[in-house]
């Protein structure tokens, strides 16, 4: 008899509009939750949305809505006449997901505070641009302006020095917020709910689009990037199309030199970073790429273990051999267009197959006939109504065999919310983030001074274990027997060589949850390809929408890793719920690329449903007009005239506010500018006037003037200046963290707060290499003499047993 999905009986009321809330509740519905979407008679605006502007029939819904609303129910309610009806739904639910934008959600009775007061048993998850409290709580914003505030527009040097920087195309920030909101809701569920979860979209973008820039700047005295320059080779044009080739480590740069026949370029003692060395050889590298076909380059790069991927878009992605073999895309159960499959997979299968999205109000009468709303199953309610006073993951022991960014970002949230996380490295192969800060190997304890490692690993314990040795593998197996969860993000071949597959792990601990995070999945022709964020972004289509229309796309160089991490956390929490209900262990496959194709879903959906290929358009986009970056009159901290503001107008009311602010009242009476489509047609003219207006003002003056008139606007922040944003200070987003080697430094925290705490999330600094060897092995019964012998053999250690190769990026 089939097992019910893990979240069966968990009822979520969806009072949100837009992508973030819809994606949050989609992930919950995939896990088996009953999601009841409460809409006004006009319906969620997503029902009328198409990024390409496709015509949607009055009795139909947009394709993106039909993807995001799979497996949900829809009820229509009037906020004035249906108060009792909606309150009955809330009374019988376990959680509610809320955002501004509908007359139901913004009714005085259904604000987050009012819902918490009337229904204290609920987890109330709010998703807003800046959070519910703080000086910016009610300021207007869009994804575009939030990217600017986050530092994600300018911080990774994306774009050309002779033009404005460019934002990450598509609506990835909306999906990131939804994924974080889902994970936070499930975390609250683990301790019984009964709290407010306050998600800030700005903070999710900081974690998703920048790379711990504040800690980096404070610890090293320099920003991660101080100029816009191409990532070389990056996305380049071959004989027959675009390809992405990356070198994220020193070894990959050396291998790229060898692959292109330029071993003479290899200089392990160069004072330049690998990025600088590659830029010096850009012409030769691009010439070599142009002389080869995409397939020839990919075969060579794969043989050399160099990250590579084709550049996907809505038109070609479903035909790529890897996605075909893995069945990565499925058919929408209502309208038959192509859509991504689940962003993760499990063995045994525990996720619900997508069911058709609901027509507006399709289930209204169904729930009216129920006297007290959807009703919570008594056994389930009893299990979850016992509210814990501890942290969500108290008592959970996690073996963290991850490295770099994607895997550690997942386990870091577990550690910040109470889990005991044991981070395993070896002296032969320390975590890669220890090596990318450009600290000279001649400096004492250089491997302990990486701000990236520090930012990703607070609250964890550190174990250094040589897994190439029999003794190291034996100790690892003994440790597995004490753990609830094991997480790894090696390429599959590495785990195969170690003999550490799910069957082997289950033989030690039958009920363990094993979370595997390969770049491209556990099967398929690309399974063993190395995966860094940039090739994941290229292969999924995210890169395609990023950049200027007349040039090759740019790699976002950011979102692929943290996006994978937060999706993996969602998958893990669903798997843990399955184990709680069945006692059964679960293998979770959370491939980075599967998470990425889900947040880029709009491209394949628009092409399949409407035949429309979405294209990059600089800083313009389909959600607002005008939308662009405009230069201010300031000189930046690097002595360049490179200060910008982001402006995005999404409604007619905001357009009138913009006209008033910039003194162009004549625009308000121009019939050609009275609609978004009309403003889009005359975008060039509007840009000219806004550019001239902004060029005489500071960014602060522009923000004050436009916010006063309700217009979404932002300064394009240098990411290492995030601590200067008053909203982040008010929410306590940064906490100072002490360290035995490094000075006390601000570290970013979580992009959501819980009304039941914790008040502080960083309680221990990131571990020194092997810091907890003695403690952890003593717990396993290893004697002091045996530990000393293991140290003599090199199985354990506290310093890298490797050459001093520089690995600056």
Automatic annotation (TrEMBL):
It holds the Pfam family CoA_transf_3. Residues 332-384 are annotated as: Disordered. Residues 360-383 have a biased composition (Basic and acidic residues). GO terms for molecular function: CoA-transferase activity. Keywords: Transferase. This is Putative acyl-CoA transferase/carnitine dehydratase.
């Amino acid at each position: 008899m089939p097992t019910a999905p893990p979240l069966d009986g968990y009822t979520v009321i969806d009072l949100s509009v837009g992508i973030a809330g819809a994606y949050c509740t989609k992930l919950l519905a995939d896990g088996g939750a009953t999601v009841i979407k409460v809409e006004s008679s006009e319906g969620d605006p997503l029902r009328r949305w198409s990024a390409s502007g496709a015509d949607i029939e009055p009795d139909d819904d947009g394709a993106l809505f039909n993807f995001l609303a799979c497996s949900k129910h829809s009820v229509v309610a009037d906020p004035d006449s249906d108060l009792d009806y909606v309150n009955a739904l809330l009374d019988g639910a376990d959680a509610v997901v809320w955002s501004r934008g509908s007359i139901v959600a913004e009714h005085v009775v259904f604000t987050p505070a009012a819902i918490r007061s009337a229904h204290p048993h609920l987890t109330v998850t709010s998703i807003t641009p800046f959070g519910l409290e703080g000086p910016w709580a009610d300021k207007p914003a869009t994804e575009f302006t939030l990217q600017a505030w986050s530092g994600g527009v300018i911080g990774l040097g994306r774009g050309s020095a002779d033009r404005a920087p460019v934002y990450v195309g598509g609506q990835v920030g909306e999906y990131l917020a939804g994924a974080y909101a889902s994970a936070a809701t499930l975390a609250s569920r683990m301790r019984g709910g009964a709290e407010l979860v306050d998600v800030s979209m700005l903070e999710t973008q900081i974690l998703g689009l920048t790379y711990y820039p504040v800690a980096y700047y404070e610890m090293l005295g320099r920003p991660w990037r101080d100029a816009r320059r191409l990532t070389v080779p990056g996305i380049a044009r071959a004989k027959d199309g675009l390809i992405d080739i990356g070198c994220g480590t020193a070894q990959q740069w050396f291998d790229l030199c060898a692959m292109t026949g330029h071993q003479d370029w290899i200089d392990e003692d160069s004072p330049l970073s690998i990025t600088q060395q590659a830029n010096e050889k850009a012409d030769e590298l691009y010439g070599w790429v142009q002389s080869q076909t995409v397939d020839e380059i990919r075969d060579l790069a794969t043989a050399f273990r160099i990250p590579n991927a084709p550049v996907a878009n809505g038109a070609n992605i479903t035909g790529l051999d890897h996605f075909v073999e893995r069945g990565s895309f499925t058919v929408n159960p209502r309208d038959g267009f192509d859509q991504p499959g689940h962003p993760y997979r499990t063995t045994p299968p525990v996720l619900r197959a997508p069911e058709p999205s609901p027509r507006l109000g399709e289930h209204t009468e169904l729930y009216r006939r129920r006297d007290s709303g959807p009703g919570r199953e008594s056994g389930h309610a009893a299990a979850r109504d016992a509210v814990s006073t501890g942290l969500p993951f108290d008592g959970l022991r996690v073996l963290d065999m991850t490295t770099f960014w994607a895997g550690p970002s997942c386990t870091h949230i577990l550690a910040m919310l109470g889990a005991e996380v044991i981070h395993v490295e070896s002296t032969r192969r320390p975590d890669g983030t220890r090596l990318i800060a450009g600290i000279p190997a001649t400096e004492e304890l250089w491997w302990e001074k990486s701000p990236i490692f520090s930012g990703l690993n607070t609250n964890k314990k550190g174990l250094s274990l040589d897994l190439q040795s029999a003794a190291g593998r034996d100790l690892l197996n003994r440790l597995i027997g004490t753990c609830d969860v094991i997480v790894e993000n090696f390429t599959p071949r590495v785990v195969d060589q170690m003999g550490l597959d799910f069957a082997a792990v289950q033989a030690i601990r039958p009920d363990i949850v094993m979370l595997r995070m390969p770049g491209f999945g556990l099967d398929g022709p690309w399974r063993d390809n190395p995966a860094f964020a940039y090739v994941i972004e290229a292969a999924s289509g995210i890169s395609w929408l990023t950049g200027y229309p007349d040039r090759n796309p740019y790699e976002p160089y950011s979102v692929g890793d943290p996006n994978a991490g937060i999706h993996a956390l969602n998958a893990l929490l669903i798997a843990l719920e399955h184990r709680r209900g069945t006692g059964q262990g679960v293998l979770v496959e959370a491939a980075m690329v599967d998470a990425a194709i889900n947040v880029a879903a709009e491209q394949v959906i628009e092409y399949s449903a409407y035949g429309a290929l979405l294209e990059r358009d600089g800083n313009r986009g389909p959600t607002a007009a005008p939308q662009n970056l405009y230069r201010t009159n300031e000189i930046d901290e690097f002595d360049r005239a490179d200060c910008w503001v982001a402006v995005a107008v999404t409604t007619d009311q905001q357009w009138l506010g913009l006209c008033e602010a910039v003194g162009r009242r004549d625009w308000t009476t121009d019939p050609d500018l009275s609609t978004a489509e009309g403003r889009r047609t005359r975008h060039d003219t509007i840009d000219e006037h806004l550019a001239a207006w902004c060029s005489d003002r500071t960014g602060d003056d522009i923000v004050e003037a436009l916010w006063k008139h309700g217009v979404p606007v932002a300064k394009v922040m240098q990411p290492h200046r995030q601590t200067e944003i008053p909203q982040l200070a008010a929410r306590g987003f940064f906490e100072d963290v002490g360290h035995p080697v490094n000075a006390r430094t601000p570290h970013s925290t979580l992009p959501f707060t819980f009304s039941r705490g914790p008040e502080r999330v960083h309680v221990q600094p990131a571990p020194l290499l092997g810091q907890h060897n003695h403690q952890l092995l003593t717990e396993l019964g290893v004697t002091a003499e045996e530990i000393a012998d293991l140290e003599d053999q090199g199985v354990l250690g506290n310093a890298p047993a490797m050459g001093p190769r520089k690995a600056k990026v």
